[in-house]
Amino acid sequence: MSDILSGLLLGIVEGLTEFLPVSSTGHLIIVGDLLDFNDERGKLFEVVIQLGAILAVCWEYRQRLTSTLGQLHRDPQAQRFVLNLLLAFLPAALLGFLFIKQIKLYLFNPLSVALALVVGGVFILWTERRALPSHIDTVDELKPLDAFKVGCAQMLALVPGVSRAGATIIGGLWFGLSRKAATEFSFFLAIPVMFAATAYDLYKHGAALQFSDWPLFATGFLCAFFSAFVAVRGLLRYVSNHDFTLFAWYRIGFGALILLTAQLGWVDWSSG
Prior knowledge:
Elements: H1 3-17, H2 24-34, H3 40-60, H4 62-71, H5 76-107, H6 110-128, H7 144-154, H8 164-174, H9 179-205, H10 214-239, H11 245-263
């Protein structure tokens, strides 16, 4: 497959999965392995398409973000909103800083991802069958302790295949957030998390950047931006009338397929 087609496919995969509870990192590991696009250049490409996805969220919530920044010095609600994001960001940031090298060494492979997809899918099914009560209907109703608890749930997402969106949304449901509040807070929390991860990965892999790669990177960036924009709006509409059972069964089916192809020898998946 040509580089441009690979960029197109990976950009769409990143954009569609980044904000859904299905693990974008897991999907990129699997698709990148199939395309043999997981070298230093491939890792830098992932940085670029992650940036495209996060900018789609910034654009979707541009009015809320600009309003918050403009009123931050005088509005207690804006100040609490930023404090909540900071408290939710810190647990995973600290854990990632300490252990990300070990996690990438041992868990960033298709079979680990597949297992995490299945386990996460089963947990989502179990959660949905419990009919958890909610007492927080909007993001503005979150208290700092609520945000911190969601941030602790996000730590699980350091394991590829768990899903950052899945951990924060399902964690939010367990901590009393409504589906809409949990989903929107997950979107907002993605902004500092993904900007920090993008900056770190760019620092680590920036040496692989070459001017000749700009058509590939531009293709992936644009595909990730527009597909993420569609995914964010679509998920908000979806959660207003549905639960996350569909995503759970998708995770279980996709993960099981990867494990089956490995067991039967149909695909020679990399081990790390």
